[in-house]
Amino acid sequence: MSLLKTILNRRQKGKPFVHRDGRELSLHFSEPVVQSNMNLDQPDVLALGYTRTMMGFLLFVPEPKKISMIGLGGGSLPKYCYRQLPDSKISVAEINPDVVALRNEFLIPEDDGRFRIHCEDGARFIKNFCASEDVIVVDGYDIAGHAPSLCTEKFYADCYRALSRQGVMVVNLFGKDRHNDGVVTKITKVFGDAVFVVESEDITNKVVFAIKRSPEDLSHEELFLTAIVLMSQMNIDFHRVLMQLLSHRCFK
After folding, report:
1. Which residues on adjacent β-strands are paired with residue 137?
2. Number of helices (H) and strands (E), helices first, in the chain?
3. Is beta strand 115-118 parallel, antiparallel or unpaired with respect to 205-211?
């Protein structure tokens, strides 16, 4: 089978495929929707705005020891955390073996003592942990959208149980999906008032931060200082994320 026919066959079946445009690589499940993007000259840079916004979890946990991620995609967030957070242990659950098979295309690190990709269902994966994860990143999408098993109240309850006392869960919500409000409602039932919805930097997605502790335990001064320190280390506008967080009623 020719290369062109192979690519077309994968697209017709809804399998992940890679598109290259010059020095840019993008991961797709369907033609119009970009799941992940990478510049070959800067493979560890977060190219998409929503991924930069998701790094706002560092405002709550500046030095996470354990990070669990659900959904690999092109590995933008796992790669970035691996390079930028050398003291963090990172585990990634990806249910689709075809996505995992593309890890070398996107220059995702090999498994080692602090980085590992698990080819398994994310909802089942998170049940392995209890009060141990400082950060849980949920970004599990396929050609049909947000995986149903990753947007149930039971799943969010499992995430809550898996988080350490200071932990935070961050969830990516794609565009104007009609199910987004329902997802936020389910998260709020589990996490109470400690749920914050932020518009992504590129205004394409919503990012939900849900913390295990009470918002009353958070110091505004410490959050601002943390944002300043983080911005001196990373090319991410943490101040923008923080201002949206502080606009929520539970901080007033």
Report:
1. 69, 170
2. 9, 12
3. unpaired
CA 142/CA 8 separation, integer angstroms? 18
Q: What distance in Å separates the CA atoms of residue 48 and residue 35, rounded to the nearest whole number?
A: 10
- The per-residue pLDDT string of the chain (252 residues; one tens digit each, 9 = 90 and over) reads 444 444 444 444 568 888 888 888 788 776 667 777 888 889 899 988 999 999 999 999 999 999 999 999 899 999 999 999 999 999 999 999 999 999 999 999 999 999 999 999 999 999 999 999 999 999 987 666 678 899 999 999 999 999 999 999 999 998 777 778 899 999 999 999 999 999 999 888 999 999 999 988 889 999 999 999 999 999 999 999 999 998 875 544
Q: In whole angstroms, how large is the CA radius of gyration of the chain? A: 18
Distance CA 28, CA 87 (A): 31
The percent helix, strand, coil of the chain (3-state, each to 5) is: 35, 25, 35
Task: Kindly give, in sequence order, each residue whose CB lies less than 8 Å from that of residue 110, ignoring residues fewer than 6 positions away.
Answer: none
What's the first-to-final CA gap in the chain, in angstroms? 62
pTM above 0.85, yes or no: yes
Rounded Cα distance between 209 and 163, Å, is 13
Distance CA 162, CA 70 (A): 13
Q: Which amino acid is at 202?
A: D
- The tokens describing 146, both together, are 């947000």
* 139 among known catalytic residues: yes
Which of 44, 134, 139, 217 is labelled catalytic?
A: 139
Q: Output the six-digit token pair for 148.
A: 């149903």
